[in-house]
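Page 47, continued from p. 46.
Same chain as before, 211 aa.
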Amino acid sequence: MKKLLTVTLIAAMLILPLGTVALADHEEASAQAPSAQEYIPGGVPAQVDPTASMSPALHGVLLAMMNHQLSSLDTGDSALSWEILYNMLSLYGQLDNRSEYADSDTLLLLSETVRDYCAALGLSFDDLGPLPEELSDRITYDASSDSYRVVCGNNDQARFEIRESVTSGSAVTLSGALVYLADGSDLAQFEAVLQSRDNMFGYTLVDFTLK
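Result:
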């Protein structure tokens, strides 16, 4: 029953217009760290908070891994990587000042934005390959504008939480969970390892384990 509930929730999050809970939660977190608007290519913003800056990446990974019932991340899986990127862009893309609304539930995002999000995941955009067919109803590419059209997701039924952060040199280990708001139970728990990097987010994901 819980497995069925989890699958249903993930589907609901990623096919509906963005909810105010997701937006408010991330705006509060973003206030603690530099955003896309403050990033200067080639320089890492000072005092980047990994909890705030990397939440979109970790949230996107968590949802995709739950959807595919995986316990460890395989960035060599192109279809999985595209699904993670879609999750990130659909839930958080509107916070990037380069994005535009095509309509009430669809965003237009330049390919350079997708490249920036790839960097947070340790992915090479050029090696991703074409968009998988199974995502064609949610994300499409427009060559004339070099942009992606992304159907917004919804995060009203579950809350992404980071509960612990441990720093060791340039590496940071974060642990947390996806919490079902109806009863406060954990739908999944995770542990992620980040490495400090010169990119928009200030870090790159190097390991992710679903517990």
